[in-house]
Amino acid sequence: MKVTGTKSGYLGLAKLLPITLLSVAAALFSVSSNAQVTISENEEGDNDGYFYTFWKDSGDASMTLFSGGRYTSSWTNSTNNWVGGYGWNPGSRKTITYSGSYSANNTSYLALYGWTRNPLVEYYIVENWVNYNPSSGADSYGSVTVDGSTYQLGRSQRVNQPSIDGTATFYQYWSVRENKRTSGTIDIGAHFDAWEAAGLNMGTEFYYMVMATEGYQSGGSSDVTVSESGSGSSTSSSSSSSSSSSSSSSSSSSSSSSSTSGGTCTDQCKWYQDDPRPLCQNQTSGWGYENGQSCIGRSTCESQSGSGGVISSCGSSSSSSSSSSSSSSSSSSSSSSSSSSSSSSSSSSSSSSSSSSSSSGGGSANCSGVNEYPNWTAKDWSGGTNNHANSGDQLVYQNVLYQANWYTSTVPGSDASWTTVGSCN
User: Fold this and answer.
1) Cα separation of 34 and 41, whole Å?
2) Residue 59: helix, strand or coil by DSSP?
3) Which segment of 89-93, 212-216, 272-276, 352-356 scores lowest on mean pLDDT?
4) How far apart are the C-alpha atoms of 353 and 343, rounded to whole Å?
5) Who wins on pLDDT, 76 or 417?
6) d(CA 244, CA 227)
7) Largest CA distance in the chain
8) Where are the beta strands (DSSP E) in 76-183?
9) Which residues, 6+ apart, have CB-to-CB distance to 114 below 8 Å?
């Protein structure tokens, strides 16, 4: 059944297409079950148990639907921007398998593509791309190793742009695979977890997600078959270590725990103001997914600004923070962030306070010449207006100086994107 005709598209370059009652009525008969049909006008609907979407803003792009989750597409350089594919509505934490062929002569993506609401988010898990790597134009949020490759995480903001809910301001989340491919398995939940762990929250209401082909000012073709391979938890880099599950789990681990006479201590990452997170055992940088949970590499943890860093979380009264034992037994309180043992070994910049808000000492600060919120310091493009702060930018709010940890447009001090520098003197 045909539903609507909206799309945000290549870095949000989309046009919102109105729907009339007449078009909705006609849509009821647009695609019959198990039909093979070619689509060249904007529509969404269901065919043979799969959801499909097709959108273009101009040109002669088309997509042909087959049974069994297969579609083909072709487009020429006369098309400015188009996207389409087979998938599911609503989207969810599925593990999917896809295979086929894909080629383009200019900018194009092969990606798992979808939307959420509350908040409104447009997301891409890019498996292959031609000419332009979308993570290169986005704010970087590290990386995650999953599904046999490293994916670069990023976020872009679209201000007053068309979306599935009309003109709106929203974020695009990117997870871009380094080792390109045209077939494989995607653990979608692992990518959701990586975004969440980096502070990029998914919406509470999922709209569609499809294995999509997208073209921008290019020509090309694709032949893609997609299917669900299970609900999935993780196909990411596996580890023999279990770091925070129940009251008594032990394994061989190269680092992150040390036992003392007072109990067992486990090194964790205090990521800005968040609760401590597990350190990855199989990688030293970026975000990972091990033992059914997100983790962060030690060097990435230690490189953050502000009060975060590697801390030692102990199950008893010990304050040991070295990392050489082969035991990684974890107590159920291993994610606590307020014990007196939160001082850090190695090069951690963690403070010994029990604060769970953005802080780095709480002393006085020189606020002379610093913009006061909401007088933003940065803009999305050269001709735009200042509408956000970039990593390292400072703003004064209610006589307190804050520093941005990454791209942010939230109220200073309201979430993990800010570090408190101190009260203005």
Assistant:
1) 20
2) coil
3) 352-356
4) 9
5) 76
6) 33
7) 76
8) 81-88, 95-104, 108-117, 121-130, 139-146, 149-161, 168-177
9) 87, 91, 122, 123, 206, 207, 208, 209, 210
Query: Which pLDDT band holds residue 65 (cuts at 50, 70, 90)?
Result: very high
Sequence letter at residue 336: S
Whole-structure pTM value:
0.53
Digit-coded pLDDT (tens) for 301-340: 787 666 678 887 665 433 333 333 333 333 333 333 333 3
Cβ(36)–Cβ(65) below 8 Å: yes
Residue with tokens 């976020």: 155
Of 40-44, 163-167, 180-184, the poorest mean pLDDT is in 163-167
Higher pLDDT residue, 139 or 244? 139
pLDDT digits (tens, 9 = 90+) for 35-50: 689 999 999 999 999 9
Length of the chain measured in residues: 425
The letter for the amino acid at 18 is P
Position 186 confidence tier, pLDDT thresholds 50, 70, 90: very high
Kindly state the DSSP code that residue 279 receives in the 8-state scheme: B
| CA distances in angstroms from 64 to 44, 100, 228, 361, listed in the order given | 13, 14, 20, 60
Task: Provide the CA 94 distance to its chain's centre, in angstroms.
Answer: 16
% helix / strand / coil in the chain, to the nearest 5?
5, 40, 50
| Alpha-helix residue ranges (DSSP H) falling in 104-223 | 188-197
Which amino acid is located at 186 in the chain? Answer: I
**Which of 43, 44, 127, 214 is the catalytic position?**
214
* 197/124 Cα distance (integer angstroms): 17
Measured CA to CA in angstroms, residue 414 lies from 10, 304, 325, 350, 397 at distances of 31, 19, 38, 20, 11
Residue 122 annotated to the active site: yes
Residue indicated by tokens 């040390």: 258
**Neighbour-count burial of 20, counting CB atoms closer than 10 A to its CB (0-12 exposed, 13-18 middle, 19+ buried):** exposed
Determine contact, residues 323/300, Cβ cutoff 8 Å.
Answer: no
**Which structure tokens are listed for 189?**
């939940």
Residue the block writes with tokens 């870095």? 11
Active-site residue, selected from the candidate residues 122, 127, 290, 302: 122
User: Is residue 214 among the annotated active site residues?
Assistant: yes
- The pLDDT mean for the chain works out to 74
Which two structure tokens, joined as six digits, stand for 7?
């799309």
Does residue 53 register a pLDDT over 60?
Answer: yes
Q: Is the pLDDT of residue 134 over 60?
A: yes
DSSP secondary structure letter of residue 201: P
